[in-house]
Amino acid sequence: MAPREGEVTQESTDSQRLNAGAFRGYPALRDTPLKSSHTWLAGKRIDDNIGNYWRVHDKLYDLSEFVDKHPGGRQWIELTRGTDVTESFESSHIGSTAEVLLQKYFIKNADNPRNSPYTFHEDGFYKTLKRKALPVLKEVGTGPTRQMLLMHDATAISFICLCLCAARYDSYMLVSLAGLSLAFTVAMAHNFFHQRDNFRMYYFDLCPLSSSEWRVTHAISHHLFTNSIYDWEISALEPFVFFLPDPAKNKYVAYLTIFWSHIFYYMAFLIEILKRIVCICMGHMKIRPENLLPFIELLLMCYLSSTPTTAFKLWCTMQSIASFIFVYAPLTGTHHHPDIWHHGDATRTDQDWGLCQLDTVRDRVEVTGNLFLVCTTFGDHTLHHMFPTVDHSKLPYLYPVFFKTCQEFGIPFAFQKHTDMHMGFYRQVINRSPNKDDPGYKNNKLE
């Protein structure tokens, strides 16, 4: 008997599992009920199958002795042991210094092809863009400007002051402003945890999210494998939100998702607390000192508020408001629209990593040009994906060489309107039809 419309059969599920796009296979542990940075890394180690080494392109390296010497901090090296770090290596290092240094730790050539389909040919789009960007970055630097530092510190201080004043006067108006400030502070901290270790990355931990966890789930997973089956931020939101175009997606459930997913946006921060407790109990992660920051906020609010119950309500309200703003802004303004490539759509022939990034990201014209809006609403997102370790304040300097490279490769880059991206997000949530045409960027402009 034929399956009813929207019914997920074993055959359709198996088909989806086998359809790994250009990847060699469906990711191990992707469908585990409790998704975390631990399960993502464990699954990738299974899929990459390189033992205790680090893989870059088709060579294996032993970076054990380099852990404490890494300029970006030891965590980036420790976390990725036993995985293919080609995409991370290429996008994090603009010049040739790292390539020369890497040869010191060479062990042997890899025995099997890479699981990832992405390429980095010398004459390809991304390598060409990096060569053009190098002299610019040598001149202006890659680190934050004084304006960026002052703006982030001021936002964090504003949050702390508003949080304590809200508790002192039991004010829901002040705590709402504190939630807004917290969302802005956390969004700006996203800029800093992509970079070498620094204290401002821990501003991210003022909310229940973890900068350490997000270095895996966001910087290593989402940034390198955007909108693919290896993108943790795609799989983690299931079953709350289904972004991938799947004919087996129940259209009625998809329409309902538009409404009840907004509850999830408000609850995301608080859900993260429960998930971390479970992961700690299961031995998947350990408590890090910065994880205690949200609870220190709660204790201070209990001390200043009229009653602990009132303080707890104020704290939950603050975290919920911050959660909605922080989660909703990037979801609706960066990666999700029916004309943007998602796993299941036709795969481009040229799998240059930079071109594949262009297929999966768009920028809003209303945001670009304003550093505060860029940092708080994930603007200049295309360049941020191309150069994730470059501070947001330096990305505008790269637009001339970026436009020149796009022109050289025949790519008609264009900024999009926020309303187009916003409505496209909802269209993608209910989208059940994969794009059958090649997702080449010039054939994939938003209307």
UniProtKB/TrEMBL annotation:
- The species is Meganyctiphanes norvegica (Northern krill)
Keywords attached to this entry: Heme, Iron, Membrane, Metal-binding, Transmembrane, Transmembrane helix
Q: Does the keyword Iron apply?
A: yes
- Write one Pfam family the protein is assigned to: FA_desaturase
Family the entry assigns: Belongs to the cytochrome b5 family.
Q: What is this protein called?
A: Cytochrome b5 heme-binding domain-containing protein
Domain Cytochrome b5 heme-binding residues, every copy: 56-111
Question: Where are the residues of the annotated region Disordered?
Answer: 1-20
Q: Which GO terms describe its biological process?
A: lipid metabolic process
Instruction: Please name the SUPFAM superfamilies in this protein's record.
Output: Cytochrome b5-like heme/steroid binding domain
Q: Where is the composition biased (Polar residues)?
A: 9-18
